[in-house]
Design brief:
2 copies of one chain form a homodimer. Chain A has 16 helices and 9 strands. By secondary structure, chain A is α/β, with parallel strands linked by helices. In chain A, β5, α4 and β6 form a beta-alpha-beta unit.
């Protein structure tokens, strides 16, 4: 956020959310910070503004306070390898699980097949080896956990998805999802069923449901909230709550994506590959060393700093220390990168050991579709 | 079929199928009669031309000859009371069941709910009390029989429906079904899954499937055959076969429909109501008695004659006797109607006794959805 030619100092990187104000004013997403008084041990991702917004998450906190049943629902699209951007969501899930919240993980294999046209055997493999195994290695527990493939659910779930179709017009579908196709209809109805089915008697009776998503997913959430309203009488559904996080930037300054291997460090990358990727990452450094000494770096623009903020520096004082050293021009990018690589490799090495063990566990945690 | 002002004599009523030739030439439906040499005990509905066409039914007959597994699949739309038009389909089902063919009855509750917007409790009641109970009273056996609600199936069935969506474009969907809506997409994909799921390993392994339908349903069949082709490699699906029947005309000369109670005699109509409906039915009689004595009646245009042909006169010689007496002006409509009413009441009285007993049996034959 440039103001009079100067960058607003912002160690938490709030300023990186484009359309931040619009999300709040136009779409009714509320700032997450307003909830801090109600949260005893906020996650670093909350304190650091990565989780920046919410809808009705206060109701979730109240329900927890009243000891009522709460579930976190999230869907994985099993389309590629897991990177540090995904880890951020996994970290949230594990945090909530440790708070005693039920965790429900939907593997969006129907969408992956129908819309992304992935081969079924491959998407099943990715779900197990990448998503579930990494989640376990990151610390996901088997308690309060249900993982399912969309295509392997039971009748009430599918009945829900098909019932939803009665009350969605072609016009409103197209307004959100563009051209209406059979594949998109199928994917969208099942996604809504993912979020809302935990509220049914058939799945343990009503519980509050929330979904942690990126802001880009908010149209799905608004759609699902509308559906819940339309079936509040007939099926007792209620609006799901949601939290909104920003995404890590790609190492090259673009979007971090599994389909652009140089934009992301994968949790299964060989150590030397991961190190080389981080060493080449775009930073907030100046054109020359002299300039950087004089003006200081811009950590807000730096993907190495993002690695610290999201992953590598859990203690706030360590993060602030780096932030100000960079800002004051005391820490140059080369030195900083070496430090980040060292921390990352230490973490990755440990993680990859756990990952190998977790791969054997993964298929015990979910029923695998027969085709 | 008027020829030089004269009606072509046609005791079997073939001439009543509009666009008959078009179905054969343009859409590739084959005349059912060509199969007669292969059918040992053809049903009256075959001999009398009610079942007039087929696709690949020769393959079904060959499979039966080779003692391979064959299933008949049909779907019921549980939207209203059962009438004599429905009985004609039930009679076919029972005929095939007695030949040793597996019978699979899909209750199209997803379509009834999503597209026809029926209330779920009501459609479940109609499925049980009208469709299943009447089928049992008509003679459907419990052997080789599977009845299911679409919304109460298991994962492989739904997986199939959702997979189909990958290979159906919006353009081809619209070409068959008009405007594409979420509800229609849902209904159509499940209908295709109804027809094709019995071929999967999960449902007892590959079997030949055929579907007895009215000619108006042929677009669905062509669509489903296309889908089967597209999944022949991935899932081993094959084109379903089909037979085509014409429908009974309504008693008033219009369409016979549950939604127009005077157009149809319901199998549960009180006897006096059914009698009164038949007495008022449109016949092929002339303007005056004198004229009818002189010119003879036109049984091809007569809904009472249709009752004989479809239901009340199983012996061909009895049917032909009536036909020629009417044609020669020997049998007038009043007398004829009394005879028909007498036969119908005798049958209905017997049927309704069985129906009462069957109502208790119906819910034992199918798993009922929890909502």
């Amino acid at each position: 956020m440039e103001r009079n030619g100067e960058i607003k100092l912002d160690p938490w990187g709030y300023s990186q959310i484009a359309d931040y104000d619009k999300l709040f004013s136009l779409f009714g997403i509320r700032p997450f910070r307003e909830l801090f008084p109600k949260i005893k041990n906020p996650h670093n991702l909350m304190k650091r503004g990565v989780i920046f917004g919410h809808r009705d998450f206060d109701q979730i906190l109240d329900a927890l306070e009243r000891k009522e049943k709460v579930a976190l629902l999230t869907g994985f699209m099993p389309s590629g390898k897991l990177h540090f951007g995904h880890k951020m969501l996994m970290d949230q899930i594990i945090y909530y699980q440790n708070m005693g919240i039920d965790i429900i993980l939907a593997i969006a294999d129907i969408e992956a097949y129908a819309v992304r046209r992935m081969e079924r055997k491959e998407l099943i493999r990715i779900a197990l080896e990448e998503y579930i195994a990494n989640a376990l290695a990151l610390g996901l527990q088997k308690k309060n956990l249900r993982i399912y493939f969309q295509s392997n659910m039971d009748a009430p779930y599918y009945r829900l998805a098909s019932m939803f179709s009665q009350k969605v017009t072609a016009a409103e579908f197209s307004a959100i999802y563009g051209e209406i196709t059979p594949a998109k209809v199928t994917a969208v109805l099942h996604q809504a069923a993912d979020i809302l089915h935990p509220m049914l008697e058939e799945y343990g009776g009503y519980k509050y449901v929330f979904v942690p998503v990126g802001a880009d997913q908010d149209p799905h959430l608004r759609f699902t909230r509308d559906i819940a309203d339309r079936f509040s009488g007939e099926l007792g559904l209620r609006r799901p709550a949601s939290t909104y996080h920003r995404f890590m930037t790609g190492l090259d300054g673009g979007k971090m994506s599994s389909s652009r291997p140089d934009s992301a460090i994968f949790l299964s990358d060989p150590l030397e590959v991961s190190a080389s990727k981080l060493m080449k990452a775009l930073t907030g450094g100046r054109a020359t060393v002299e300039e950087q000494r004089r003006l200081g770096g811009e950590p807000e623009k730096c993907s190495v700093y993002e690695m610290y903020l999201y992953h590598l520096l859990p203690r706030d004082e360590d993060l602030l220390d780096i932030y100000w050293k960079c800002r004051r021009g005391e820490l140059l990018c080369g030195e900083d990168k070496k430090m980040a690589v060292e921390k990352m490799l230490k973490w990755l090495e440990e993680h990859q050991k756990k990952l190998e063990q977790a791969k054997n566990e993964a298929e015990k945690l979910v029923e695998i579709p027969s085709f």
